[in-house]
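re: ur question from yesterday

yeah so i grabbed the chain u mentioned. its 293 aa long if i counted rite. heres the sequnce exactly as i have it in my notes:
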Amino acid sequence: MRRTDLGLFGPDSVTWQLHADPALLLGGIRSLYLQALHPRAVAAVVQNSDFRTDPFGRLMRTAAFVGISTYGTETEAHAAAERVRRVHSRLKATDPETGEVYPLDDPELLLWVHCAEVASFLSTARRAGYPLRKHHADRYLREQRVSASLVGLAPDTVPGSTEEMTAYLRRIRPALRRTPDSDDIYDFLHRPPLRGRGLAALGLRLYEPAIGHVAYSLLPPWATGLHGRRPYPRSATTVATRALRQAAFRVRGRIRSAADFEPPSITAVRRLGAWATPSADRLPDPLPAAPRP
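ran it thru and got these structure tokens back, copy pasting raw so excuse formatting
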């Protein structure tokens, strides 16, 4: 078997195990709430996205990119990254306050989106009961420097440990705030403009309290404070997150069959063999400490 068949991370990585977990759907929605607090990042989304006519399109495109970059071959991952970079290089946005025009591939914006995403994945997985220890989280952030490089960031500028991620979030917090654009994203993520009858209508009514607001409530208190809306109590949010994760385990096979959709992790297992099946039981042990000189 060629090394490139294992992709950018491979079945022995934390990324390979974690990105197959259904809790990351909530993590992805959480990250959109968090990203919306950066005035320039959210303005870029509102001005360049068709999210109002394509509900969850951006979330699904992000999920597809995460899936390909994690479980695809190296060739597939780099091709997907090239498409993303090409789109970003053509798009610009206008700062609503200053009128300044800026590119979407501004490294500051790319770094914010990356950090909001991976920090949300880690935080949500832990709240959902995924057995991540600190050394797993640190290794995951180091691995995700590869993902950051795919969209054009220099790896050494990206947090590679939980301490570095905490420092980055603390450093950028003064630049974050609620804006009319962040209000639009908050409202959209709570009440996407979908239409349906019967079971579909019931699903839409259940989405806001069961998923939309649970994902929002997974934000840290400083972020919900900036949004200015009250989250569910922390204990209730944790219980709901774990219940949703367990429910997803019970029904995801039926959902895949009904939707005729094969997750990238399953495609990778078909390519590599059952030994590559993602599992929390395969999370790697800590790297051995370097011997003292």
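noticed a couple things. The CA atoms of residues 31 and 116 lie 5 Å apart. also The chain has one domain: 3-275.
anyway ttyl
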